[in-house]
Design a protein that fits this description.
Blueprint: E1 3-9, H1 17-27, E2 31-38, E3 49-52, H2 60-67, H3 77-92, E4 99-103, E5 107-109, E6 116-117, E7 120-124, H4 131-140, E8 156-160, H5 161-175, H6 179-185, H7 189-192, H8 204-215, E9 220-223, E10 227-231, H9 232-236, E11 246-250
Parallel strand pairs: 1-2, 1-4, 2-3, 7-9, 10-11
Antiparallel strand pairs: 4-8, 5-11, 6-7
């Protein structure tokens, strides 16, 4: 099996995207193309295909117009948009392979890393646990639930278009709407708090990881890698553990 790479790019990551791509090219094993889904369609990144995020069937305004009804919330709109871009990339980007590896734009692979083995998808885990993610997925479909002791949130994930379609169809059969609409309308955490409160109400990685365990456990391998969330200053000062397989450079770490 072969795969493409998809990297959603927002304003916060644009200053480091060229450095990130160099790490991807050096250390991700077996990919074909790199697609950058960008908020800025006129950028040029060597060796990458730029995809305008506006070609997707949903826009940032679709998300903001929904959440604005709840305390004027707007501080997670781009975050939810990126989750949906990842899930819909296989249906929207012309010519993309059915298998595609999503990498968050703040992730830097430091060691050679594979994502397929013996025609199985390799998933990396973490120790994260955030109950609202599982509440959200269970609202999407009764069979979606936490199915592993570890978390599937690890700043990257390999997806298969046909398996995502199967997941979408389960949800759409229940609600009789497009999946992306259902996904947004069932984010409850976003509605509970005042405008200045930042909270997380859904996770595309947790959703797909647990769907795969539930329905396609025979198609996946679960592994642990050494990785860390680090601050921008640690990255700039080169003060992070080089033994990590990868790092995530997080704006929120001070």
């Amino acid at each position: 099996m072969s795969f493409d790479i998809v990297i959603p790019l927002g304003p916060n990551e644009i200053t480091r995207i060229n450095e990130q791509i160099q790490h991807v090219k050096k250390n991700v094993i077996g990919y074909r193309n790199i697609y950058i889904i960008s908020f800025e369609p006129n950028i040029t990144i060597d060796g990458c295909i730029i995809i305008d995020e506006r070609i997707f069937e949903f826009k940032i305004n679709d998300i903001s117009s929904y959440f604005i009804k709840y305390n004027g919330k707007n501080n997670r709109n781009g975050w939810y948009l990126q989750q949906l871009l990842k899930l819909y990339a296989g249906f929207t980007i012309k010519g993309i392979l059915d298998n595609y590896l999503v990498i968050d734009a703040d992730v830097f692979f430091l060691k050679k890393t594979s994502f397929l083995e013996n025609d199985k998808y390799i998933f990396t885990t973490s120790d994260e646990y955030h109950k609202p993610y599982f509440t959200h997925m269970n609202k999407l479909h009764d069979s979606f639930e936490k199915s592993h002791t570890k978390s599937g949130i690890a700043h990257h994930m390999i997806f298969n278009k046909n398996l995502i379609k199967e997941m979408f169809e389960l949800v759409e059969a229940k609600y009789k709407k497009r999946f992306w609409v259902i996904f947004i309308e069932n984010v409850e955490e976003h509605k509970k708090y005042p405008i200045n409160r930042i909270e997380s109400g859904a996770s595309e990685y947790e959703l797909y990881f647990n769907f795969m365990i539930k329905y396609h456990n025979d198609k996946m391998i679960i592994r642990n890698l050494n990785w860390s969330n680090i601050s921008v200053s640690d990255y700039k000062n080169n003060t992070y553990d080089k033994n990590n397989n990868y790092i995530s450079v997080c704006e929120w770490i001070k």
